Amino acid sequence: MSLKDLDTNNVTYYDLNNRLNIPLNGQIQLDQDQAALKAFLEQNVVPNTMRFASLKERFEYLLENNYLEADFIQKYEFSFIEKLYAHLKEADFHFKTFMAAYKFYTQYALKTDDGQYYLENFIDRVAVNALYFADGDETLALKLADELISQRYQPATPSFLNAGRSRRGELVSCFLLQVTDDMNSIGRAINSALQLSRIGGGVGITLSNLRSAGAPIKGIKGAASGVVPVMKLLEDSFSYSNQLGQRQGAGVVYLNVFHPDIIDFLASKKENADEKIRVKTLSLGVIVPDKFYELAKNDQAMYLFDPYDVERKYGKPFSYVDITAEYDALVADETIAKKKISARLLEEEISKLQQESGYPYVINIDTANKANPIAGKIIMSNLCSEILQVQTPSKINDTQDYEVLGTDVSCNLGSTNIVNLMASPDFGSSVETMVRALTFVTDNSNIDVVPSIQAGNKAAHSIGLGAMGLHAFLAKNQIHYGSPEALEFTSTYFMLLNYWTLKASNQIAKERSETFVDFDKSAYASGAYFDKYLTHDYAPTSEKVKALFAGIFIPTKADWEELKEAIKRDGLYHQNRLAVAPNGSISYINDTTASIHPIINKIEERQERKIGKIYYPAPYLSNETLPYYASAYDMDMRKVIDTYAAAQEHVDQGMSLTLFMRSSIPEGLYDWKAGRTDKMTTRDLSILRNYAHHKGIKSIYYVRTFTDTQDEVGVNECESCVI
């Protein structure tokens, strides 16, 4: 039997898995999921996996038939590959749930070209990842194999999926592009969107620099069309460039809230928008300076400034002007075209759209820049709002050549599995191994079709190591999400990630005698970055959390001082190191909870194409952990914001923070609802966004709403930038 001939009516694993959703005597039938896993392996995997007489024969077949690249294999003696496999088999890896095995084999395992047979199991994929990212270094390959098979480290989906394959997409996850205020840049951005969408990964584009609708062009008043027509062109580009029909191209456009087209920008996503302006598949994000929060809080009018006039006045694109610092001067300047709206009205429009669609994402741009240790300015984010890196503008001439080659961003992501990393025999060594694997991705990324992306990656060597499984770890250790102990644990965990990624980056810089460009202008080089670690102790204080970190090295102020001096002396290889992505199907393969947000259901329901519903039990679910698995939809979102704030203090980039709301809010959940309607209102979202800003949150990703009709609004299954 082959996969093509597999009759789903003659297998039992779907029915067994579905029993998870049917309580028996008031109990969740967790044993039925184990039965489903066993049946899946027996009925699907074993009979449909191609067999080989030896490991050598298998690799010869894969190379001869163009399934694997030969170059990385040839960097090793085959005796070492056999040693690596023996080491991996000793780990005795087993999937823990049906969903984990199902997701791996359907989405990640290499199959024959005709789709008839599996060509690899989990150990095979781990081995190829380890060999590929170690780049011929046997010691590193063994270490990386340990991290992967123990599921302490999970490369981003594009990296894990494509590593070593002959016919593959790029290893990077997503891209950030800026458009400047001229037709050449707009044309180049559309071409870049086509190219990057073809390669794979979501694309973030900021349109904040474009002159507004009605602005003059070459002295002709009212000639400019504004940002919405460009959005339509970009949406069509992403729809057209869809990876041979395998996946819809994905993009997000950002606009500063002080741009005169902001209301039209938001209106383009409304369900009742005119088809001429409506964008259906493009995601929206807003860039929000601190000044907006101040004006909205005081119920003041706000002025929107035309980017063409601002650039002419300041000599740089609109995105690079500090609107908060320059606001009063901009208002007073009669040479800058502007229009006035109510700040509260705009705040309400943002909330209305978030209720209706989950959009827009919110980037608190001043918060991001105040915490930014790198010389330069952060102007935007990516498709999942966790990448925040400095950029510089390009200048393109009429022949579409770069007169000035600026820098844009590609995202090289990976994630720690919190439960498993906390059990590592050497936390620091594990993190260093992960950093070296990610460094291979940034070093070998070759996005030459978009030179500004290429230039940015080569200058920055940036990576984004994050985390998944926070709720699983807390529940396993009987700690309530958002409790003081949970926040204390989160802060210490991310402090450790920060410390060890800094150590690893410093070591790589020392080995290579190379730092990221403009390291000498950074707060790392001056030592100012380390002030908070030299004046505040982030070690756990409660007995419960101290016990969790027992046996794990916690750096003292003296350790931070030593690291500071080492970095001042030898530098850092990576401009950016940490970012927390939203996670997707890969968290199921890791048998853990996604990212650092709470679970949605104790038994999660997934709709699979052609199959129907599949159910996934929360990790470590038992009578003991059940009380610690509150649904995100039943949780005060301030607990989620507090959790992300505890991590954000140590994360140099951003985190994909999703807000989970019910259309009818449970009584007593939010104190400000007392005596008011129980329906979710725009006021609720405004309060939570302001609270997040107050807590130092750099970005808000999605707003997901669970309605009274059991639907979910704003459910985003971003497949490009998730881990």
Structural summary, described in words:
It catalyses: a 2'-deoxyribonucleoside 5'-diphosphate + [thioredoxin]-disulfide + H2O = a ribonucleoside 5'-diphosphate + [thioredoxin]-dithiol. GO terms for molecular function: ribonucleoside-diphosphate reductase activity, thioredoxin disulfide as acceptor. Pfam families: Ribonuc_red_lgC, Ribonuc_red_lgN, RNR_N. It is a single chain. The protein has 723 residues and is α/β, with parallel strands linked by helices. Among the domains are: 1-150, no CATH class; 174-409, Anaerobic Ribonucleotide-triphosphate Reductase Large Chain (Alpha-Beta Barrel), CATH 3.20.70.20. 42% of the residues lie in helices and 12% in strands. It contains 29 helices and 21 strands. The strands form seven sheets. Strands 13-2-3-4-5-8-19 form a seven-stranded mixed β-sheet. The chain starts with 12 loop residues before the first helix and ends in a 10-residue tail after the last strand. The mean pLDDT is 94.
